[in-house]
Specification:
Elements lengths: L17 E7 L2 E7 L11 H9 L7 E6 L5 H9 L3 E6 L3 H13 L5 E4 L10 E6 L7 H11 L3 E12 L4 H11 L4 E9 L2 E8 L13
Parallel strand pairs: 3-4, 3-6, 4-5, 6-7
Antiparallel strand pairs: 1-2, 7-9, 8-9
Length: 214
């Protein structure tokens, strides 16, 4: 039997559509999820930690949700920043369909749910907010971040939540070594076994070594 993960392009498991009740951007919502996507029955604890510790969004521009799943981060950004364009990126076609369905149900017209190659090459992001797919493996994850982090606009930030026992500290060290010069990386918050990591792209390369907060 082929493996079937939330990061499979076409999940083989039954769709099993269901409705869940969640609070996003201060609104009580009923949204659609399905089998074969990440955390289909509830708002993931890591995503909740990210929401509790990230700053307000920029008022506009292009935003990225890397590994959108059924859309909680995407929908939150689209609701909170209606003048922004939110790019919901995932390899899982079922997840993308759910994100589109949920955006439509909320009347959101500022969401583009696409596979990675569906984002135009010239788009730069005012922010990235992500609960990244850690279980794809370190090599694939690093390749993803090496592709997307450099597409941050100058003076812009990426905020990511990673479970401590799934390698958040080693990922922080890798990003610090990889995204330099011109970037800074630090642990912005901790909670419930998760780390919130912030990557900032500066306008010019820093003149002093980057310190990583412990």
């Amino acid at each position: 039997m082929p493996s079937d993960h939330y990061f499979s392009a076409a999940p083989a498991s039954a769709e099993n559509l269901r409705t869940i009740h969640v609070t996003l951007a201060g609104r009580e919502l009923d949204l659609t999820t399905a089998g074969g996507v990440f955390s289909p029955d509830r708002l993931d604890a890591g995503t909740a930690v990210l929401f509790a510790n990230m700053p307000p969004l920029p008022p506009g521009g292009d935003f990225l949700d890397l590994g959108c799943g059924w859309g909680p981060i995407t929908l939150t950004m689209a609701l909170a920043a209606p003048h922004a364009t939110v790019w919901a990126v995932d390899v899982n076609e079922r997840a993308l369909d759910l994100t589109r369905r949920n955006a439509e149900s909320l009347g959101l017209t500022n969401v583009n749910a696409v596979t990675p190659d569906g984002v135009p090459d010239d788009v730069q992001f005012r922010t990235i907010r992500s609960n990244p797919p850690i279980r794809v493996g370190k090599g694939v994850l690093h390749e993803m971040l090496e592709h997307w982090i450099p597409r941050l606009d100058e003076h812009s930030d990426a905020w990511m939540v990673v479970q401590r026992n799934l390698g958040s500290d080693s990922l922080q060290r890798w990003m610090t070594a990889t995204f330099t010069p011109g970037y800074s990386v630090h642990r912005a918050a901790t909670g419930k076994g998760y780390r919130v990591l912030k990557v900032r792209r500066h306008g010019t390369p820093p003149t002093a070594p980057i310190d990583v907060a412990e």
